[in-house]
Design goal:
The chain has about 675 residues and is mostly helical. The chain contains 32 helices and no strands.
């Protein structure tokens, strides 16, 4: 043990001779007259000071720091036994950080006293304990930390595990030693620890810089998608709706993450650019496609209604044996809001993929994943027929090696895309040939004309095109299977739906509360109004039950509040999209009729035959477009322009336009009557 270390342990930790220390302190205050000052302290006072110092510094003894760490802090055995999510929460706890910091700094300090430091910059107080704790995730949950195992990732991984193993062996030696001190730890065990720690911190920094640049770009694109998605929600979306809450939660989480990674200035710059319109969401009509596009939005994307389940498909086939999936793989009457939100997330994914390729050290991980999805999709659909061709064209290991070494050029990229297109054209349904040929002509030409800076975007556009073609083939195959099972569903679909619904009731994932409340309200209203006799219901007369069901359905359609999965009766959950569409069309018809009646009454009040001709142009405003929603302000403005061609006075026209705005409100008496 070195002299420096002995002095440290005796002066800072043990304090076994406080009388000597007091005497030295007194000498310094009294100009060296030690005898005179020393006599002023009684034995009792010295003992009291000794007890105070013992109580103060006992917790700082090396053994106590080690014991606190071992009982509270992370150990390899504990880290291996818990999930990654639990580990992240555990390592962020303030008590864990505190005990880990104290123990790490002491072990590092004593090891440096004994063997020296590999770098002057690596002082114990400069060691970032959070970075050290991250080694537990890196060593024992690498697949959760790293997107791929490149050279930097592999180097960091290889430095983390020996560091943690050595650290734990040192503290175990201290705990099990006879004198419970660092002095009894074998020097060959502590000799390499400072160097291991230095190498780990150096490799962590080398990995962190490009990783933070990559994450910063991705977070910004995800935020753009989330802000766009929130704007797509209807104005009357409740503040506590699942989607709005999820969007805002994810926005706050990503903003915090961006500030943590890139700093406050980067967050402020992003906000300023967004306000100035310098960051954009998806271009109009240019949405992404494919399953890969949803990764950018995280939990917010997952909060959207999922694709159709087997039960939903069976339900649609029961209603329409010719039912087919649309081009997006869903139902053609899906809520357009959800469609626009998906487009935002898809476009954000492809934009962030472009940025991956524009980094100083390009990241190819997600590009390779998209290529793997394209290859596997073609393999699944074509079987052994084209298995060899697509595997040869998309040799991912070869592409990865060449790309990481900077040997995969633009010509290679163009040949790769062309080879995949050739396979797709052989596999796809003949009805897709013209569409694929026309789109490939555009994509291929864009790739040929792309300059160096434009090549990443051109390549990602080509990948988006390929993934879209694979998804189109999947949809064609799924629709072909639907045609085969439609006769079976016709005979057994009702029993299948009833069985699945009963299973959900049994396991508690569904109840009948909303359905019973919906029917109960209708029954009470119809019986009180004597539209239906209670006796006829009790007698089980079919006509009465049909009437109650019809009125109940009409009540749903006529409801002004938008129908959602959270409010829809459980027995109608598979028809929410259909009922929502009917609801919007019903409200459009009522509002249109109300405004048209009001306008007709105002125009005909002039009793001028010429004015009635204007009514035809006003009627065209409501029937010219097959819209399911009405823009009241725009419609009133258009009617106002038409009224200028009548003999009505300006005052009468102004009064009529105000009446048109008023009657469009659901609370208006005329609106309610119609």
């Amino acid at each position: 043990m070195s002299g420096d270390q002995k002095n440290y342990d005796s002066a800072v930790i043990s304090h076994t001779n406080p009388e000597r220390d007091i005497k030295r302190k007194a000498d310094s205050f009294d100009g060296g007259s030690s005898c005179k000052v020393a006599k002023s302290y009684s034995h009792g006072e010295v003992v009291r000071v000794q007890r105070i110092w013992t109580r103060k510094f006992r917790p700082l003894k090396t053994f106590n720091l080690v014991e606190n760490y071992f009982s509270t802090g992370p150990t390899i055995e504990h880290v291996k036994s818990i999930s990654f999510e639990a580990l992240v929460v555990f390592l962020r706890e303030k008590p864990i950080i505190a005990v880990s910091k104290a123990c790490l700094q002491r072990i590092h300090l004593l090891s440096t006293f004994r063997h020296g430091s590999p770098s002057k910059a690596l002082a114990p107080e400069n060691v970032n304990v959070r970075v050290f704790l991250a080694a537990f995730m890196i060593a024992y949950r690498p697949t959760h930390v790293f997107e791929s195992m490149g050279a930097l990732e592999q180097s960091l991984f290889e430095s983390a595990m020996p560091l943690l193993t050595t650290f734990e062996r040192i503290i175990q030696c201290i705990r099990s030693s006879a004198k419970r001190s660092f002095q009894e730890v074998p020097p060959d065990l502590t000799e390499g620890f400072p160097t291991m720690l230095f190498e780990y911190l150096k490799r962590f920094k080398a990995w962190k810089v490009p990783d933070e640049a990559k994450l910063t770009c991705r977070i910004k694109h995800a935020l753009i998608a989330l802000y766009q998605a929130e704007e797509h929600l209807p104005p009357d979306e409740p503040e506590d709706s699942k989607l709005k809450v999820e969007f805002r939660t994810q926005i706050e989480r990503l903003r915090s993450k961006l500030q943590q990674i890139a700093g406050v200035d980067a967050l402020n710059q992003f906000d300023e650019q967004r306000k100035a319109g310098q960051v954009s969401g998806p271009a109009a009509g240019g949405g992404g496609s494919g399953g890969s596009g949803g990764g950018t939005g995280g939990g917010a994307y997952a909060a959207l209604p999922g694709r159709m389940t087997n039960e939903q498909l069976a339900h649609e086939l029961l209603l329409d044996p010719t039912f087919q999936l649309d081009e997006s793989g869903g139902c053609s009457v899906e809520n357009p809001v959800f469609h626009r939100i998906r487009e935002s997330f898809h476009q954000a994914f492809w934009d962030s993929l472009v940025d991956d390729l524009k980094l100083a050290s390009p990241c190819y991980v997600r590009v390779l994943r998209v290529l793997a999805e394209i290859r596997d999709g073609i393999n699944d659909l074509a079987g052994s027929k084209e298995s060899g061709s697509i595997s040869e064209a998309v040799d991912l290991e070869f592409i990865k090696q060449q790309a990481e070494q900077g040997l995969y050029g633009w010509d290679n990229c163009m040949r790769l895309i062309g080879s995949i297109v050739a396979v797709i054209q052989r596999v796809q349904a003949p009805k897709r040939d013209d569409e694929t040929r026309a789109r490939w002509k555009q994509v291929g030409q864009a790739m040929q004309e792309a300059a160096g800076a434009d090549q990443p975007r051109a390549f990602c556009k080509a990948l988006e095109f390929l993934l879209d073609r694979v998804n189109a083939m999947r949809i064609d195959a799924a629709n072909a299977r639907l045609r085969l099972i439609a006769p079976v569903i016709k005979d057994h679909g009702i029993d299948y739906e009833r069985g699945k619904f009963q299973d959900k009731l049994n396991d508690g994932s569904l109840t009948l509360e909303r359905t019973q409340d919906w029917i109960r309200k209708t029954l009470r209203r119809e019986v009180v109004s004597k539209t239906v006799e209670l006796e006829s219901l009790l007698e089980g007369k079919a006509a009465s039950y049909v009437h109650i069901h019809t009125v109940a359905m009409l009540a749903l359609v006529a409801e002004t509040a938008p129908l959602k999965s959270e409010t829809c009766p459980e027995t109608l959950l598979f028809d929410v999209h259909r009922l929502s569409l009917l609801q919007r069309e019903f409200q459009y018809l009522v509002t249109s009729a109300t405004m048209l009646v009001t306008a007709t009454h105002g125009v005909t009040s002039t009793k001028n035959i010429a004015d009635t001709e204007v009514l035809a142009s006003i009627s065209d405003l409501f029937v010219s477009d097959s819209k399911s929603e009405i823009d009241v302000d725009q419609t009133v403005m258009d009617i106002g322009k038409a009224l200028e061609r009548t003999s009505m006075s300006p005052e009468s026209r102004s009064k009529l336009t105000r009446a048109l705005t008023q009657c469009a409100a659901p609370s208006d008496a005329v609106h309610q009557l119609l």
